[in-house]
Design a protein that fits this description.
CATH class of the domain at 27-93: Mainly Alpha
CATH architecture of the domain at 27-93: Orthogonal Bundle
Strand order of the largest sheet: 1-2
Helix content: 25-40%
Strand content: 15-25%
Order of helices and strands: EEHHHHEE
Oligomer: single chain
Number of strands: 4
Length: 96
């Protein structure tokens, strides 16, 4: 069995890698689709805003957002400063 390393450095089989990268929009997981549904209006959202809109845990949103960014279904379109922490947060949106 051919071993391939994913973009996160995890070892996966060639068939797993090919299968994952052949997903179409219709084949998104339920949580990925929930995240994508937040962008129906062309909104630009932080991961925390997506978490609030979907009622998914922030860690789950971060994982799904990373998958969608890697698949080029989402893109980083800017950033905003968090009022509470003062740190910058990425704004995600649908690529143009």
């Amino acid at each position: 069995m051919e071993q391939v390393f994913s973009t996160t450095g995890r070892r996966v089989s060639g068939t797993q890698f090919d299968s994952y990268h052949s997903l179409t929009v219709k084949q998104l997981s339920a949580k990925q689709q929930m995240v994508m549904d937040c962008f129906d209006t062309g909104a630009k959202l932080t991961r925390e805003e997506i978490s609030r809109r979907t009622n998914l845990k922030l860690s789950s949103v971060c994982g799904r957002a990373r998958e969608l960014l890697d698949a080029k279904r989402l893109a980083v379109v800017g950033s905003v400063r968090d009022i509470a922490t003062g740190k910058r947060q990425e704004l995600l949106g649908v690529p143009a």
